[in-house]
């Protein structure tokens, strides 16, 4: 059932996701933006949600102003750009919800954002935390959703 991820994620990005989850309320979703090379080949940074983020059991919206500041800071640091999103699912599988999909489609369809590829990492919590990677890609005129693997996710330090 477990398959390796087809998306390279820096160990430091995985650690910051784990640390954000540990410091939050396990009954509520959390998440943040992902940053790396514009082609979406690698995740170098996973941002925190930000102080003004909205958390609920079935919904999460990151703090937009905070995320913009992080984007500017990381671009200055190593040229990283916004390439996707990560968020948790409290007690449902790490599969994008209808709401998740509509958000991802909106981002990849927005011509001013210029995405050809959009990464989504979903971490399901519960007794055995699992990280699933999803990729939305433009193929000809269509946008397709590809599951890029899943693996056990370690929440401890
Ligand atoms: Zn979701």
Describe this structure as you would to a colleague:
There is one protein chain. By secondary structure, the protein is of the alpha+beta class. It has a single domain, classed as Cytidine Deaminase, domain 2 (3-Layer(aba) Sandwich), CATH 3.40.140.10. The protein is 25% helix and 34% strand. The protein contains three helices and ten strands. A six-stranded mixed β-sheet has the order 4-2-7-8-9-10. β9 and β10 form a beta hairpin. 32% of the residues are buried. The structure holds zinc ion. Zinc ion binds next to β7.
Key attributes of the depicted protein:
157 residues; alpha+beta; Cytidine Deaminase, domain 2; 3 helices; 25% helix; globular; binds zinc ion
CATH superfamily: Cytidine Deaminase, domain 2
Number of alpha- plus pi-helical segments: 3
Based on CA atoms alone, the radius of gyration comes out at 14 Å
Q: Order of SSEs, N→C?
A: EHEEEEEHEHEEE
Q: Poorly predicted ranges (pLDDT <50, ≥5 residues)?
A: none
How do the strands of the widest beta sheet line up side by side? 4-2-7-8-9-10
Small molecules (ligands, ions, cofactors) in the structure: zinc ion
Tell me the distance between the termini.
Answer: 25 Å
Overall mean confidence score, pLDDT: 93
